[in-house]
């Protein structure tokens, strides 16, 4: 069942419904009296009983009964650790308890007069109240009132804004997203101060009730993409969205592709730039990775630092990255193909030295390549998962055992080690981790193809990969654009990193969009005034 | 249901295709460890008119000891192995040779083709077919004529290079003598004039017991058969006409001087200008060359324009003499157009050429040749006046 | 309509260019060289007339029937029965040519790279890959072509540049040794390739901006012309009189490249060029065959036909010739007339008939 859940998009809804109906039965037994939309009762004790039955066996939910102005019975419900207790004491409980009450009072005026929290929201149903309580906002229920008040007093422990660990830069902002959605939205809002920046709030997850924010800039965003994103998120019906990665798999176009069709980034500056290009960002509470759609293959090759450095250097670095993309995908397979099929293409002296170093090796080149690549992947994985203190041990074992001992024992040849090492290094030059993972995975079928059909196999593999990429779309955007279909205006951010004063138009994501993003002729030149 | 579909997609299809690949994966795959890398191919005729094929192969495992061993020690194993076999055709002999060798013969890295004099005399045309037909050998292999059986040449262990084939290749790429690639040979024999020239290689014995290879002269082919050989100095003349002089030096003894001056030719250009006037076929060989003095044993000051002029004249004469000598041999004695005259006439006078092309070699011997050489000494080298001669003894004129 | 995707005229040009060039650059120099000798570089120029002609016919027919392919409008023009017959014959022609191209590819790969790999595997693998592309639809073929064609062109230019030290322009002389005839005779075979320009008639109905079709078709013919002339010249300059003696002169030329002892054996690059180009070529023909079949059978989707037809085409390729010699003879003797009948005669007759009978597609039917 777990497997099935991650299947194709269109079938999710159907399957979800099937399962939901079963669960609904169970739930109805538990909360027989309360439905989702049941309004709060007039009687406080009824309300309290219901809440207590809902929060049965939840020791962290605190019920605090008290009297407003020593007369009216009320109860405060909050969750320990999610709300600011000092504030509850100082600005809610003590003013309410100490308030004196005239004959003709209205509870809501009283609350607005006495409670000095920044946000007070009226809640009318149980489900609304539960939502508020579980997001840390204490709810006050008052006797003889069929509505309660949710106070914006949520406060919980959160990680402070830190340097993004997965996307390092030498130059550029060092802030990274954290697990709290409120902080993340603020990081974006701080960068785009125009009110055109919109944050559409959504929710997903039956149990997690995860907050999701869709950020976009009105007037720039492609409406169709936005609509599509909203629809796709609405369709999700699962127990929980633990991380944005879960959401990603539900909203992407083709989950059966190794290539990511959504960018997950930790960097607010990255998201800001994407929003200004007319894309949509999806923020998921609990995940420091913000999703950005739509995506093209080339945008996976762009690092945020490209835009902060000098454009000539950034362009050459980008080309270096393309080169190493090819190396990480094809070097081992080329090595196998050349060594086992096309020996005449290797320069003579090189062939001799490879032949000499391979003389003792017991394995065929294909097996050797597969073996070493898998070992490298294992080392990489181990290095990631291990606690930091042990990490160095792995690298020592990797370098010494695989690098030195295996070669001197004649189990693998030295050129193969060089090839694997170079491939490994190359795969980490790719700006996006998810893209580099795709490339690393595709390397293996490529090696197999090279081992069966030689160079021809490699070319076949390339063709299949290109066909696959040509078929892919990310929220309506062809994956290979602007290369295919060709858009010259988009090429200046693909083949080059054009200087900023040349980026006059936005990358073209679909039909309706706001074309110009800056005025012409901004190339700096000292004698400009004389013209 | 969906689960099954997914399993089908992600497990069944890849594993089936993987199995197919594995089953299939043994058609053309050859591990490098199973290859005998041929670096030199030698063709020789036996007395009963069969082909004796010899091949020089590298021995990679001995290269390890050569590389990893301390210093110049080359290990016990020889760097190369030479095998030979006899057969009716090249490929027949090759199959026989394969029977003796535990590894698959691989000629994709072949560098040189040696043809023995004996075979050259009997005709090479039918034997060089494999150079263009078999998918592996390179068109860039250099072709040589060897004095004795090529196997003897392959057995020579040179001092600087790893194999004698490599030595021959380096010699050819230095372009001291003729250097002919398989493509050039095929082109020469397929041309209508059909005359070819190949460099001759011989073993040089230098006591005690060390052998080397050297290029010595040129073998001239007529209708695919070796018609004769030219010695080194005539070969130089030939190279001048064929516009193939490179890395050459000329040493002359200036008039009224006892010692020599050497010049390095670093720019050379030869043009063949054919002309037919009143049925009189004439070829103008126009040579432009720029030289540098590299050694001056005399007391002449090379910065003096008059001296330089005289030396230039002398150099021109010298070149003319060389060319004349080569012409006499090639044109009159051998009557074999290895100079490219035929092509030149063909290109400029296609009609008249068509009439004589069947007995071109006779016509060739009748052509009058005019040589216009122009030598420029551009620089006297790093020192203008002889540095080791006292100032007052330098002849300035 | 069966095809839902739309392509731009640029994409059409990028699809058609390799459709002509891919096999032409390898086979044409030797075949024209046989006839035209040192005038072989002129032959493609004469032959380009065929290209302009068939592009013109295709565009004229398309003007009358903007949303239809030849399979559909032949029924309108020639009547139901005769139209179906023409359609069927045309489908057979497309499938057969597709098989022949597959076979050319197979012979090349087997002869130069994988001598012991079974032919059926070589053919099957490329057919499978092309079938994947065709299944993705016209847009996918066009986009893949847009990735491959620039790369292939750059590689080709790269090979030519590397060959520049080996060029000997004197090989071109004497020009017109035997008059104009040899170069004209040499033009017959390339004309067969140029006639394949008629394949645009299968792409024209799906163009987004049909107005530019004329301009881009002309540009493509000229691009093909330039490429062929340059290819022929370069092989002639490198090999001279030896050119027609090789089966694949460009391949030999690339194999001959050696710069600084390290940049050598560019045949792998030539293979990449060839396979990349031929992938587009086969895909275009294969797409045309599949689309035609679906239209002929009045199906609503061509996707289910893709793999069965791929199988048929592979088998056709396997059986189309018993060996390379037969294939060469087919290409140099039969093929020009074969394609002349299907890509020029039949369309011209259809066009004339349509013009005389004043047939046009009625817009409401689409």
Features:
heterotrimer; A: 531 residues; alpha+beta; 3 domains; five-stranded antiparallel beta sheet; elongated; disordered N terminus; B: 397 residues; alpha/beta; nine-stranded mixed beta sheet; four-stranded mixed beta sheet; 13 strands
Sequence-ordered SSE layout with sheet pairings:
The complex is a heterotrimer of chains A (531), B (397) and C (366).
Chain A: H1 2-5, H2 9-30, H3 44-54, E1 61-68, E2 72-79, H4 85-98, H5 107-114, E3 120-123, H6 126-134, E4 139-142, E5 148-151, H7 181-191, E6 197-204, E7 210-217, H8 223-234, H9 244-251, E8 263-265, H10 268-276, E9 280-284, E10 290-293, H11 311-340, H12 348-358, H13 365-385, H14 388-408, H15 414-427, H16 433-453, H17 455-471, E11 473-474, E12 477-478, H18 488-491
Chain B: H1 2-24, E1 35-45, E2 51-58, H2 60-68, E3 80-87, H3 90-100, E4 104-106, E5 112-116, H4 117-122, H5 130-133, E6 142-146, H6 150-155, H7 164-174, H8 182-190, E7 195-206, E8 210-222, E9 225-230, H9 232-242, E10 248-252, E11 261-277, E12 280-296, H10 305-334, H11 341-348, H12 350-356, H13 360-366, E13 368-379
Parallel strand pairs in B: 1-4, 1-5, 5-6, 6-7, 12-13
Antiparallel strand pairs in B: 1-2, 2-3, 7-8, 8-9, 10-11, 11-12
Helix pairs in contact in B: 9-10, 11-12
Chain C: H1 9-36, H2 43-64, H3 70-78, H4 80-112, H5 119-136, H6 138-163, H7 181-195, H8 213-239, H9 249-256, E1 258-259, E2 263-264, H10 267-296, H11 306-319, H12 324-357
Structure write-up:
The complex is a heterotrimer of chains A (531), B (397) and C (366). Chain A has 531 residues and is α+β, with helices and mostly antiparallel strands. Chain A folds into three domains: 20-151, no CATH class; 181-295, no CATH class; 308-478, no CATH class. Chain A contains 18 helices and twelve strands. In chain A, the strands form three sheets. A five-stranded antiparallel sheet of chain A has the order 1-2-4-5-3, sandwiched between helices. A five-stranded antiparallel sheet of chain A has the order 6-7-9-10-8, sandwiched between helices. Chain A has a two-stranded antiparallel ribbon with strand order 11-12. Mean pLDDT of chain A is 81; it is low at 1-17 and 28-32. Chain B is α/β, with parallel strands linked by helices. Helix content of chain B is 36%, strand content 31%. Chain B has helices at residues 2-24, 60-68, 90-100, 117-122, 130-133, 150-155, 164-174, 182-190, 232-242, 305-334, 341-348, 350-356, 360-366, and strands spanning 35-45, 51-58, 80-87, 104-106, 112-116, 142-146, 195-206, 210-222, 225-230, 248-252, 261-277, 280-296, 368-379. In chain B, strand 10 and strand 11 (261-277) form a beta hairpin. In chain B, helix 11 (341-348) packs across helix 12. The longest helix of chain B is centred in the last third of the chain and has 30 residues, at 305-334. The radius of gyration of chain B is 27 Å and the shape is globular. By secondary structure, chain C is mostly helical. Chain C has helices spanning 9-36, 43-64, 70-78, 80-112, 119-136, 138-163, 181-195, 213-239, 249-256, 267-296, 306-319, 324-357, and strands spanning 258-259, 263-264. Chain C is globular and about 60 Å long. Classes of the chains: A alpha+beta (531), B alpha/beta (397), C mainly alpha (366). Chains A and B meet through helix 12 and helix 16 of A and helix 1, strand 1 and helix 2 of B.
């Amino acid at each position: 069942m777990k497997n099935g859940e991650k299947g194709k998009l269109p079938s999710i809804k159907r399957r979800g419904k099937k399962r939901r109906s079963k669960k609904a039965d169970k739930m109805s037994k538990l909360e027989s009296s309360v439905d989702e939309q049941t309004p709060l009762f007039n009687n406080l004790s009824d309300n309290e009983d219901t809440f207590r039955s809902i929060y049965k066996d939840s020791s962290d939910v605190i019920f605090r009964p008290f009297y407003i102005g020593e007369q009216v019975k009320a109860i405060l419900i909050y969750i320990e650790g999610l709300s600011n207790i000092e504030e509850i004491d100082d600005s809610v409980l003590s003013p309410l308890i100490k308030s004196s009450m005239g004959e003709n009072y209205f509870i809501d005026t009283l609350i607005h007069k006495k409670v000095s929290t920044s946000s007070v929201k009226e809640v009318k149903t149980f489900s609304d109240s539960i939502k508020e309580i579980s997001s840390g906002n204490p709810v006050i229920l008052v006797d003889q009132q069929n509505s309660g008040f949710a106070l914006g007093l949520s406060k919980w422990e959160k990680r402070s804004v830190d340097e993004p660990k997965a996307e390092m830069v030498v130059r550029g902002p060092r802030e990274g997203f954290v697990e709290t959605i409120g902080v993340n939205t603020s990081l974006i809002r701080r960068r785009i101060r125009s009110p055109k920046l919109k944050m559409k709030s959504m929710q997903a997850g039956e149990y997690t009730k995860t907050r999701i924010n869709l950020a976009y800039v009105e007037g720039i965003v492609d409406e169709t993409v936005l609509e599509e994103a909203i629809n796709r998120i609405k369709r999700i019906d699962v127990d929980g969205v633990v991380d944005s990665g879960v959401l990603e798999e539900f909203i992407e176009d083709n989950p059966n592709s190794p290539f990511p069709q959504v960018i997950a980034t930790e960097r607010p500056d990255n998201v800001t730039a994407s929003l200004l290009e007319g894309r949509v960002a999806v923020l998921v509470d609990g995940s420091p990775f913000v999703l950005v759609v739509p995506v093209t293959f080339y945008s996976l090759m762009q690092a945020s630092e490209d835009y902060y450095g000098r454009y000539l250097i950034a362009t050459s670095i980008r080309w270096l990255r393309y080169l190493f993309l090819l190396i990480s995908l094809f070097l081992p397979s080329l090595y196998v193909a050349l060594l086992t099929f096309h020996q005449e293409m290797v320069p003579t002296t090189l062939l001799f030295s490879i032949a000499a170093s391979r003389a003792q090796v017991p394995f065929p080149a294909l097996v050797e390549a597969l073996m070493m690549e898998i070992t490298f992947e294992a080392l990489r994985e181990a290095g990631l998962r291990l606690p930091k203190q042990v990490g160095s041990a792995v690298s020592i074992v990797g370098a010494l055992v695989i690098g030195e001992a295996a070669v001197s024992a004649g189990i693998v040849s030295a050129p193969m080690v060089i090839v694997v090492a170079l491939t490994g290094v190359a795969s980490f030059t790719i700006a996006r981790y998810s893209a580099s993972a795709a490339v690393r995975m595709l390397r293996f079928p490529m090696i197999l193809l090279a081992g069966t059909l030689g160079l021809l196999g490699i070319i076949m593999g390339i063709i299949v990969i290109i066909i696959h990429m040509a078929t892919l779309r990310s929220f309506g955007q062809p994956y290979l654009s602007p290369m295919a279909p060709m858009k010259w205006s988009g090429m200046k951010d693909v083949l080059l990193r054009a200087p900023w004063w040349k980026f006059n138009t936005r990358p073209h994501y679909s039909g309706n969009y706001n074309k110009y993003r800056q005025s012409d002729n901004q190339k700096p030149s000292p004698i400009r005034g004389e013209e | 249901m969906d689960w099954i579909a997914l399993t089908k997609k992600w497990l069944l299809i890849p594993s089936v295709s993987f199995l197919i690949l594995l089953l299939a994966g043994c058609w053309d795959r050859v591990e490098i460890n199973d290859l005998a890398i041929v670096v030199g191919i030698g063709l020789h005729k036996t007395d009963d008119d069969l082909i004796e094929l010899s091949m020089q192969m590298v021995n990679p495992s001995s290269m390890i000891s050569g590389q990893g061993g301390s210093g110049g020690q080359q290990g016990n194993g020889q760097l190369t192995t030479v095998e030979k076999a006899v057969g009716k055709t090249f490929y027949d002999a090759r199959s026989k040779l394969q029977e003796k060798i535990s590894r698959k013969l691989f000629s994709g890295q072949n560098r040189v083709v040696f043809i023995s004099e004996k075979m050259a005399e009997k005709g090479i045309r039918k034997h060089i077919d494999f150079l263009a037909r078999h998918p592996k050998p390179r068109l860039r292999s250099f072709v040589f004529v060897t004095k004795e059986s090529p196997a003897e040449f392959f057995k020579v262990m040179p001092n600087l290079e790893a194999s004698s084939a490599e030595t021959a290749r380096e010699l050819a790429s230095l372009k001291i003598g003729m250097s002919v690639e398989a493509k050039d040979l095929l082109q020469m024999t397929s041309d209508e004039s059909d005359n070819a020239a190949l460099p001759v290689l011989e073993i040089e014995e230098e006591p005690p017991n060390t052998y080397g290879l050297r290029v010595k002269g040129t073998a001239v082919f007529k209708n695919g058969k070796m018609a004769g050989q030219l010695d080194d100095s005539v070969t130089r003349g030939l190279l001048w006409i064929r516009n193939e002089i490179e890395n050459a030096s000329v040493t002359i003894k200036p008039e009224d001087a006892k010692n020599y001056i050497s010049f390095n030719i670093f720019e050379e250009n030869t043009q063949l200008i054919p002309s037919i006037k009143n049925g009189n076929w004439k070829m103008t060989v126009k040579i432009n060359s720029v030289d540098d003095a590299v050694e001056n044993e005399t007391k002449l000051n090379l910065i003096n324009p008059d001296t330089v002029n005289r030396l230039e004249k002398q150099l021109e004469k010298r070149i003319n003499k060389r060319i004349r000598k080569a012409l006499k041999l090639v044109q009159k004695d051998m009557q074999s157009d290895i100079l490219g005259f035929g092509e030149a006439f063909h290109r400029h006078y296609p009609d008249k050429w068509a009439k004589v092309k069947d007995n071109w070699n006779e016509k060739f011997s009748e052509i009058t040749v005019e040589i216009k050489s122009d030598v420029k000494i551009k620089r006297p080298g790093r020192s203008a006046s002889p540095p080791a001669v006292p100032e007052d003894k330098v002849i300035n004129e | 309509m069966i095809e839902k995707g739309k392509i731009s005229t640029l994409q059409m040009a990028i699809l058609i260019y390799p459709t002509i060039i891919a096999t032409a650059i390898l086979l044409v120099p030797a075949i024209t060289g046989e006839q035209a000798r040192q005038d072989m570089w002129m032959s493609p120029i004469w032959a380009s007339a065929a290209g302009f002609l068939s592009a013109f016919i295709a565009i004229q027919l398309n003007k009358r029937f903007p949303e239809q392919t030849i399979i559909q409008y032949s029924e309108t023009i020639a009547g139901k029965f005769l139209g179906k017959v023409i359609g069927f014959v045309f489908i057979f022609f497309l499938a057969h040519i597709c098989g022949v191209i597959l076979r050319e590819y197979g012979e090349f790969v087997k002869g130069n790279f994988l001598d012991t790999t079974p032919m059926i595997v070589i053919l099957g693998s490329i057919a499978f890959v092309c079938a994947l592309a065709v299944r993705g639809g016209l847009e996918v073929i066009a986009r893949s072509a847009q990735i491959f064609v620039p790369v292939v062109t750059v590689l080709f230019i790269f090979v030519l540049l590397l060959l520049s030290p080996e060029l000997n322009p004197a090989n071109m002389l004497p020009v017109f040794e035997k008059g104009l005839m040899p170069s004209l005779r040499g033009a017959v075979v390339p004309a067969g390739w140029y006639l394949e320009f008629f394949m645009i008639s299968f792409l024209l109905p799906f163009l987004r901006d049909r107005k530019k079709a004329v301009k881009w078709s002309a540009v493509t013919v000229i691009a093909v012309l330039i490429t062929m002339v340059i290819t022929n010249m370069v092989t002639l300059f490198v090999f001279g009189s030896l050119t027609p003696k090789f089966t694949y002169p460009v391949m030999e030329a690339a194999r001959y490249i050696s710069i600084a002892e390290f940049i050598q054996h560019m045949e792998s690059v030539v293979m990449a060029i060839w396979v990349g180009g031929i992938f587009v070529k086969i895909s275009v023909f294969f797409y045309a065959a599949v689309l035609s079949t679906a239209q002929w059978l009045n199906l609503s989707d061509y996707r289910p036909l893709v793999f069965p037809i791929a199988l048929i085409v592979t088998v056709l390729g396997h059986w189309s010739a018993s060996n390379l010699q037969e294939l060469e003879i087919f290409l140099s003797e039969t093929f020009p007339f074969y394609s002349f009948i299907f890509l020029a005669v039949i369309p011209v007759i259809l066009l004339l008939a349509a013009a005389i009978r004043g047939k046009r597609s009625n817009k409401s039917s689409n």
